[in-house]
Specification:
Elements: H1 19-45, E1 58-63, E2 67-71, E3 74-78, E4 81-85, H2 112-122, H3 125-133, H4 142-159, E5 171-178, E6 182-183, E7 190-197, E8 203-211, H5 216-228, E9 237-240, H6 246-253, E10 258-261, H7 263-272, H8 276-290, H9 295-309, H10 314-321, H11 324-327, H12 338-341, H13 345-350, H14 352-355, E11 364-365, H15 367-382, H16 393-398, E12 402-404, E13 407-409
Parallel strand pairs: 5-9, 6-11, 9-10
Antiparallel strand pairs: 1-4, 2-3, 5-7, 7-8, 12-13
């Protein structure tokens, strides 16, 4: 077990909503999609029933008035669709998930919303909806669950083919997420995730793929795919853990992009090389580095750490020293952005419930299902992401203005690499 179990207090959550609001937001979409899948199954069952004029007899006919159902995640508004039976046979659509006149679902413990996210990550949608709706979800058929998985996989596939010729990114956060899921092709799939910041300061999904976290080839394939779809340049700065194969791939595909090592990952690696009795003081000494107001002060704090710990704990000192310059790259960018650039918290917060699982599910999912589930999880999180602090500073970066210790340098010195127009 890792010695470093306490998350470094480096940045605030990237989500503008709390966990409860985020879960309710995702729950509504999951329930609504499941209802729509039920309706589609009904329409397909009667697709060969025709009127005397040769038209389909059973067709969609709008929605019933929106109503709330009470779930373990709180009140959730849903819209149940209606059908029209033009044959006069009396065919009606009654959702097994939200039966007529049922408003309150069975009460479950407060911990079960976490199981909802676990259900999404494992692909066990029956379990996930049962957590939310209890007995009301018993009628959810395997066909409906399968339809949802297929729908999400198709959405990810279509999104992964989108044109990127007009896309520009100032920053990227990059990580490989070990979920513990098993696929048909390999054990322990790893999600390769890139989240970017656009010129207006908004965050968005850039890439969601799979492969090996430490593999240059896996990351190179992902980056080359972005380039083949029109992405003209990489970001000014990419933030990620130093152990990934991403960095070697980045040098070949987008060599102008600079790298910032994630301080959260680095602190974990350094503290794991120290005895527990030393971790409290060492954590404060490490924080003194990235909290320094200037690069020179950070270098001084860096040297102090190495001097204090190198003799007795050389592995800890070497772990820190090997990424010295890339740990301090954020000083060449606006101070308003430092909170976002020191760590990969934008990804960490999205996948917290997936990453922290320690046991592998017995379920085995297909590659499209695996990627589709991850895609939907990030899609829901994206709806709550806030702009980065100081978005107006991005204009200066894109104009090539250099920054020193977080402040713009108004002189004739060469500035940042301009983002491709």
């Amino acid at each position: 077990m890792s010695k470093f179990t306490e998350k470094a207090d480096i940045g605030l959550s990237e989500s503008g909503l709390g966990l409860d609001e985020l879960i309710r937001h995702g729950a509504r979409q999951v329930i609504q999609q499941a209802i729509e899948a039920e309706l589609q199954a009904l329409l397909e069952r009667f697709e060969n029933v025709k009127t005397l004029h040769g038209r389909r007899a059973v067709v969609r006919n709008g929605y019933l008035p929106e109503r709330e159902i009470l779930t373990a995640a709180g009140p959730i508004a849903v819209k149940v669709p209606k059908v029209r039976d033009r044959s006069g046979s009396g065919v009606k659509f009654n959702s097994s998930i939200v039966p007529p006149y049922v408003r309150k679902s069975p009460r479950v413990s407060a911990a079960l919303p976490w199981l909802y996210l676990k259900g999404i990550s494992t692909g066990d949608m029956s379990e996930a909806l049962s957590v939310l709706l209890g007995e009301d979800a018993k009628g959810l058929s395997a066909n409906v669950v399968s339809r949802l998985k297929t729908q999400w996989a198709d959405e990810h596939a279509n999104w992964s083919r989108r044109d990127l010729s007009k896309s520009r990114y100032v920053y990227w956060w990059v990580d490989g997420i070990h979920t513990g899921l098993r696929s048909e092709d390999s054990d322990g799939q790893c999600l390769l995730v890139i989240i970017g910041v656009k010129p207006d300061g908004r965050k968005e999904r850039v890439a969601i793929g799979d492969g090996y976290r430490e593999s240059k080839a896996s990351w190179q394939e992902l980056l080359l795919d972005l380039k083949s779809r029109g992405l003209q340049a990489g970001p000014l700065l990419a933030v990620g853990d130093g152990a990934m194969g991403f960095w070697a791939a980045l040098e070949e595909v987008f060599p102008a992009t600079r790298g910032q090592r994630c301080w959260f990952h680095k602190m974990g690696n350094v503290l794991n090389a120290l005895p527990k009795s030393q971790q409290g003081k060492a954590k404060a000494d490490l924080q003194a580095i990235w909290m320094a107001a200037t690069r020179s002060d950070a270098h001084a704090a860096f040297d102090r750490f190495v001097t204090i710990y190198a003799a007795k704990y050389p592995k800890a000192a070497e772990t820190l020293k090997r990424d010295r310059e890339s740990l301090l790259a954020f000083y060449d960018f606006p101070a308003d952005h430092w909170q976002h650039l020191r760590t990969t918290n934008a990804i960490e917060s999205t996948f917290a419930t997936v990453r922290h699982r320690t046991t592998r599910t017995r379920n085995c999912v297909s590659r499209p299902t695996f990627l589709g589930l991850a895609f939907k999880l990030i899609e829901e999180a994206e709806k709550t992401w806030r702009r980065i602090n100081g978005p107006e500073q991005i204009t200066l970066l894109l104009e090539g203005i250099a920054f020193k210790d977080g402040e713009p340098v108004q002189d004739d010195q060469p500035g940042q690499q301009k983002l491709a127009a």
